[in-house]
Amino acid sequence: MNFKEKLHSGDVVYGLTLTIGNPQIAELIGYLGFDWVWIEAEHTTMGLETILAQLQALAGTGTKAVVRVDNNDQTVIKRILDIGPDGIIIPSVNSREEGEKAIKFIKYPPLGERGIGLARAQGYGLKLGNYIKSANDEVAAIFMIEHINAVQNIDDILKIEGLDGIIIGTLDLAGSMNLQNDLGNAQIEVEVQKVVQACAKAGIACGAFVGDPNQAKERIKQGFRLLTLGADVLLLASSAKNVLDTVKS
Fold first, then answer.
1. In sequence order, which residues have a C-beta less than 8 Å from that of residue 20 and are 6 or more positions away?
2. How far apart are CA 68 and CA 196, in angstroms?
3. Cα(103)–Cα(113) distance, rounded to whole angstroms?
4. C-alpha to C-alpha distance for 175 and 147, rounded to whole angstroms
5. How far apart are CA 56 and CA 96, in angstroms?
6. 165 CB-near residues (< 8 Å, 6+ apart)
7. What is residue 170's predicted lDDT score, i.e. its pLDDT?
8. How far apart are CA 38 and CA 168, in angstroms?
9. Residue 187 pLDDT > 90, yes or no?
């Protein structure tokens, strides 16, 4: 089952966010049994070659790879898709118009206007015909909902043909509500629940970044199905600090 099929299966898919950009770390995580990894190219210094190395490292592990690009730009999206991820995450989709623009960039004709090239995704030309036929059906398109405007437009966004999943960016959502210094404010969660309920109604997988296993279990009960269970840097720091504190105590 490919990643897009998992999103539409109704199952929970468990992932981890990769921010360090090291292919050995990506490969190690890939062997641990996660369904997917989120390669973070918006808030890191990663370039195409770094992302490519991680995709190559993950290829033999069975774990699917999804890349978050830094903006909803045709050239950026095209170049990422051509190095062969299983899906792409578009940040800050706040309206149906912005979402439809993203889908146009992600899909080959006649659904979109993605350019045809010879790169890793197409087997460097050796699998060009098969890839062009299958990519629209197999490469997952995921939108970040991370602004109050997006929450207000969520029903229209979820109607976009070709959309496979939503991930809520809670921190940026809070910032758009001028609550970045009050992350415990109950109104943030009210808006989050509007999105997950709308996704359930539309049959679209809703995702979230979760900070610990208990939060993950709670999100699953609420209907979230696309989870990233933390990030490589946070897990590394937590584990190292735990070892140090345990020994010193």
1. 232, 233
2. 20
3. 9
4. 8
5. 34
6. 7, 87, 140, 141, 142, 143, 204, 205, 206, 207, 226
7. 97
8. 14
9. yes
Q: Which residues of 18-51 are buried (b: 16+ CB within 10 A; e: fewer)?
A: bbbbebebbbebbeeebbbbbbbbeebebeeebb
Q: Considering only CA atoms, give the Rg of the chain.
A: 18
Domain that holds residue 65: 3-248
Q: Which residues pair with 208 in a beta bridge?
A: 168, 227
Encoded tokens for 170: 């809670």
Provide the token pair at 168. Answer: 């809520």
Q: In this structure, are residues 113 and 104 in contact, taking their beta carbons and an 8 Å threshold?
A: yes
- DSSP labels for 151-211? HHTHHHHTT-TT--EEEE-HHHHHHHTT-TT-TT-HHHHHHHHHHHHHHHHHT-EEEEE-S
What's the CA dihedral at 68, 85, 222, 11 to 10 degrees?
A: 180
Nearest to 178 by CA among 199, 155, 147: 147
CA separation (Å) from 31 to 46, 57, 86, 172?
22, 10, 17, 31
Q: What is the pTM of this model?
A: 0.97
When pLDDT is cut at 50, 70 and 90, the band that residue 1 belongs to is confident
Domain CATH for 109: 3.20.20.60
Q: Considering its fold, how many domains does the chain have in total?
A: 1
